[in-house]
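User: When convenient, might I ask for sequence and structure tokens for a protein?

AI:
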Amino acid sequence: MAIKLLHIVEALKWGSSVQVIQGIWYKNISVRTVVWVANREAPLTSESGILKVIEQGILVLLNGTNSLVWSTNTSRSVQNPVAQLLDSGNLVVKQAGDDNSGNFLWQSFDHPSDTLLPGMKLGWNFVTGREVYLSSWKNEEDPAPGDYTYHCDPSGYPQNILKKGSDVVYRSGPWNGLHFSGAISSRDSPLYTFGIFSSKTEVYFGFNLTSSVITRLTLSQNGALQRWT
């Protein structure tokens, strides 16, 4: 699955202003399909933004006046930090030459927008206390977080839930190893496998490819979950 990082994804217009976001989109899909946005809550007002890694191993987005617009965070530092977009679509900050995912300083897979890609983990890491979940765009032109979020709920028997604000509007039912009890049609495809995986350190929902197909799961601004293949 070839995914390309653009310096500027698109000049998105709403109202009388021009909003510019930095993100990741598919390289080999003719219709521009954005799968991740960095500055979704702080769009640029011109196309002169710069994305770079500074010495501490932090990825920063600067505007035309060199002011900070968006940045990552890390509790560690390395001698020679670099940013790299992996073939999976995961944008990572790491020590140059170190491909061990356990050593990444930061990764976009831990901070998704409205799209779940193969290999992403939607759920909870009990060691770090971090939850990874999807959040819808505000509307088709505004990537700021919207009304809906999609979570893997680890309480009791793990299941996926859809929320509008703080209200749960859909439950998948517990995962029984084959499908979700509340969605019998949610079975593996010849193209990918999916499920909820749990251990003492984490509980998460995810899917992995069994073919070379391009597929993703998205959460729309209206709260609709859709599988694209």
Remarks:
- The two ends are 12 Å apart (CA to CA).
- The first strand starts at residue 3 and ends at 5.
- Confidence is low (pLDDT under 50) at residues 4-11.
